[in-house]
Amino acid sequence: MLPSNRQILFAISSICFALIGVALYLQHVHDMLPCPLCVIQRYMFLGIGVASLVAAISGKVRAGTVLALLAALGGLVTVGKHLYVIANPGFSCGIDPMETFLNKIPTAEYLPWLFRADGLCEGATDGILGLAIPQWSAVWFVVLTVLLAFVLLRKKRT
């Protein structure tokens, strides 16, 4: 028996919040500073997680899933750029206007331990189980996008 849409959305939100937890662990325990593209990916994972959670709780499955899917697609674009930066070391996003802008957003000022961008994008090559962090991020954005598309395309099942 397949899980209901709400169960899938709860699972998606749990995955997203767990991924943010892993990011915070890597940042604060292993001193892996997030770059601007990493911070944008955190925003996208949070967007997916919150939209999925609200959709599952409120019963507004279609609307919440569409919002979560938009965040997942934004995450795919962002991680695609991040992978491009890593593949082309001369192309950097280091200390640039994007970092300054991101660090001035109220969430970065009030929650710097979560949203402050201090790392270099091309430096995100530390691996876990053979993949760099941005590659893992890409895997998860693809998985989440597929799950969200599944929820949108399947017959109505709350």
Q: What features would you describe in this structure?
A:
The chain is mainly α and 158 residues long. The protein is 71% helix and 3% strand. The chain contains 7 helices and 2 strands, in the order ααααααββα. The chain has a two-stranded antiparallel sheet. α1 packs antiparallel against α2. The mean pLDDT is 83.
Biggest β-sheet strands, sense, barrel? 2 strands, antiparallel
- Count of β-strands: 2
Q: What would you call the shape?
A: globular
Question: What fraction, in percent, of the residue positions are helical?
Answer: over 70%
What is the overall number of helices? 7
Which stretches are low in confidence, meaning pLDDT under 50 for 5 or more residues running?
none
Q: Walk across the major sheet and give the strand order.
A: 1-2
Mean pLDDT: 83
Query: What's the gyration radius in Å?
Result: 16 Å
Question: How do the SSEs run, as a string of H and E?
Answer: HHHHHHEEH
Span between termini: 14 Å
Strand content: under 5%
Query: What structural category do the secondary elements indicate?
Result: mainly alpha
Oligomer: single chain
Protein name: Disulfide bond formation protein B
Family: Belongs to the DsbB family.
Subcellular location: Cell inner membrane; Cell membrane
Pfam families: DsbB
